[in-house]
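ENCODED BACKBONE
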Amino acid sequence: MREVVIVEGCRTAIGRRKGALSHYRSDELAAIVLDDVMKRSGLDKALVEDVIVGCVTQSSEQGGNIARTAALIAGFPIHVPGVTIDRQCGSSQQAIHFASQAIASGDMDVVIAGGVENMTRVPMFSNMEGYKPSEQLTNKYEIVNQGISAEKIADIWGFTREQLDVFSLQSHQKALKALEYGVFNDEIVPVKLSDGEVFREDEGPRTDTSLVALAALKPVFIDEGKITAGNASQMSDGASAVLLMSREKAEELGLKPKAKIIARTVVGSDPTLMLTGPIDATQNVLAKAGLTIDEMDLYEVNEAFASVPLAWLEETGANPDKLNVNGGAIALGHPLGATGTKLLISLVNELERMNGKYGLLAICEGMGMANATIIEKI
């Protein structure tokens, strides 16, 4: 199997729902990062053999295979194909895996993996209007929404409302510190808005967040529950992309890769708890890599709800000081299809800043699944 390397990556700043990117078409937003990731590499777009884009709500302007339409908008030659995939919140992480597998097997040399979601313009579940799950499914499993799953996880692991809120506050504090020090500046592609303003900083982190403010929020899913808008990920708008290739191709083109992908996995998990998949996915991917959790320098575990990374920490024995060190989706936002590649880009860059070696990325997914990836800085 050939070595797969990460050559470049970029993302838009993440917009709040109904925020700065709310009037920006999803296909045009995706085109921005597809164009920019190639500009950063200095390569001809004609070299790309496929564009794989994650997008969860594939309706309206996010329908019709947005990977292909965005690539055409971005000026890729017509011979460059595109495909759009949905593995729920891990869609663009799965795009990374599919691209890596194509390269490792020798089918392709140069592939872009990316993701996009404008949750303002194409609301979550708008592609499922009128849908009810099959009785053949509900007779086998208790099918609930993710908020109920997060509540169940909090109860099973015994997390209090205060623990969830403390985790959420820390996410905002870390994100605000990252913004203050310009941690994300190099990975963000400025987006020129219709009013002439340039959008270049994540909108999600709140300077006025406090434990008092978080405690005042009412539960969303259960009257006496623990999950609120404050300890759940934010609905967001954004796009991201990474350029992957074989190590041999990178050397042939005179490029210096940033990192290599050394292990990847995807697992199914309990469709009712739904969000516990990162626990098994982490154990699985570590075994594939022949590494331990203690050997990881950083972890990015998506903060779908605060109970998810807290349960992951407890079950894996991971060091909380290495987790989401620049904040997570509770503060920075979660533009569904774009989150996987967004987190990979941030993980690669933070490993470079700290001169670390190994990074782990894990994302929970709807209906009980999870992807996990381990990278090694070059």
User: Anything to note?
Assistant: The mean pLDDT is 98. The CA atoms of residues 312 and 366 lie 17 Å apart.
